[in-house]
Amino acid sequence: MRTAAIEYSPLEPFAKPAKPGQRPPRVFGAPSRYVQGAGVVDDAGHYLSRLGFRRSAVLASPRSFGAEADRVVASMGRAGLSVEPLSFGGECSLQAIEGHARTLQCAAKPVDGVVAVGGGKVVDAGRALAHRLGVPVAVIPSLASNDAPCAAVSVIYTPEGATADAEIYDENPVLVLVDTAIIAAADRRYLVAGMGDAMATWYEARATAATPGGVSVFGGRPTLAATALAQLCAATLYRDGADALDALGRAEISDALENVVEANTLLSGLGYESGGIAAAHAVAQGFTLIERVHNNCLHGEMVAMGVLAQLLLEGDLAEAEKAAGFFAAVGLPVRLANIGIDPDNGQELGVVVAGAMAFPFLCNMPDPVTPERLLAAILAADELGARIV
Ligand SMILES: [Zn+2]
Questions:
Q1: Any idea what the CATH number is for the domain that residue 60 is in?
Q2: How confident is the model at residue 11 (pLDDT cuts 50, 70, 90)?
Q3: Where are the beta strands (DSSP E) in 145-202?
């Protein structure tokens, strides 16, 4: 069982703290450019060149250097860009990040950018590396399993893989390049998990906007723009989620699939970061403290159960039933057993609730959350799931 709760960056939030009696300012952050389409990795060099990258470190796993990262490097070569390949060892730890930073700082020629190609940990490590080098980062995700690519946040792990910290930077990636064909070729479980993470975005943004002191990870009030993007994110998933999975089954890159990839990556990324997170991610954070769950479940799968718990905490049974019906239809968890938790194991649920209560953005919920109310909501989510499936 894990005990380390996530802690937020020693870096100050972007927004200046509000003066007494005043509200925090509205803050909206985003990548400079977002490009999505089938085959776009083969144009990575074109886009990087347009954004001023000339000599860049490309961070990717050894597997990826035999696949999509190799296509990125080849495209950069065609565009006349220099590449410093960096092999990602599998863990986004401070040791690994600072090791790569030292290597690049000691190199004869400095790099002017970092290109991170791969899954969530590579992307987080690339952002952390670019921050230490003081250069921009471009993100080329190989999965649409979560909404991290567009953000200015990296989760840092211990070398053993436990969550250690999160860092919040003052710049978002300058480029997020999403190749829909690569996303579609991955295991469908990743796209489905991304829908769980993305569905939380609207409900958490809605709660944050409705809470007078609610703030986003920038420390600012949500803008109308972020809240609207979050709402569009959920509406897109409800409309296109099932059709996107049908298209995946036919190996067809349909408009529905493009829409869901955009919802999981861009709409959810902007909606969560500038719109605010709340109880759904708090509950998901609590689940990660159970090592078995942390090791076997994807982030979005835990967040899906968190969405149901948040909606029941808010007393919004109609929306909870709608979300649970969607989750069951696309194959996301709706029961605690689906993520490996026994609802009768009070000791484990106590750990989950304590972890969730320590989550800094739980204060974005309109009504005060107590451990008792949170536990009741988690158990009610499980009971709702039992009625749905
Ligand atoms: Zn998330």
A1: 3.40.50.1970
A2: low
A3: 153-157, 163-168, 175-179
The SS3 of residue 139 is strand
Classify residue 347: in a domain, yes or no. yes
Ion ligand 1 neighbours, Cβ < 5 Å: 197
User: How many degrees, rounded to 5, is the angle at CA 56 between CA 136 and CA 265?
Assistant: 50
Give CA separation, 192 vs 42, 44, 228, 330, 389, in Å: 26, 26, 23, 7, 17
Find the 205 Cα to ligand 1 centroid distance in Å. 12
302 Cα to the center of ligand 1, angstroms: 9
Note the pTM of the prediction, 2 decimals. 0.95
Tell me the CA–centroid distance for residue 48 and ligand 1, in Å.
27
Per-residue pLDDT, averaged over 273-288, amounts to 97
120 and 146 co-located in one domain:
yes
Total domain count, the chain: 2
Q: Are residues 255 and 364 in the same domain?
A: yes
Select from 184, 202, 230 the last residue of a domain: 184
Q: Which has the closest alpha carbon to 308: 367, 244, 386?
A: 386
Q: Say whether both 122 and 73 belong to one domain.
A: yes
| pLDDT classification of 82: cutoffs 50, 70, 90 | very high
Q: For residue 50, is pLDDT > 70?
A: yes
Q: Which tens digits make up the pLDDT trace of 185-219?
A: 999 999 999 999 999 999 999 999 999 999 999 99
Span 157-184, average pLDDT: 92
Task: Compute the distance between CA of residue 193 and CA of residue 306 in angstroms, rounded to an integer.
Answer: 13
Indicate if 230 and 341 belong to the same structural domain: yes
Domain assignment of residue 237, yes or no: yes
pLDDT at position 230 is 98
Domain containing residue 281: 188-388
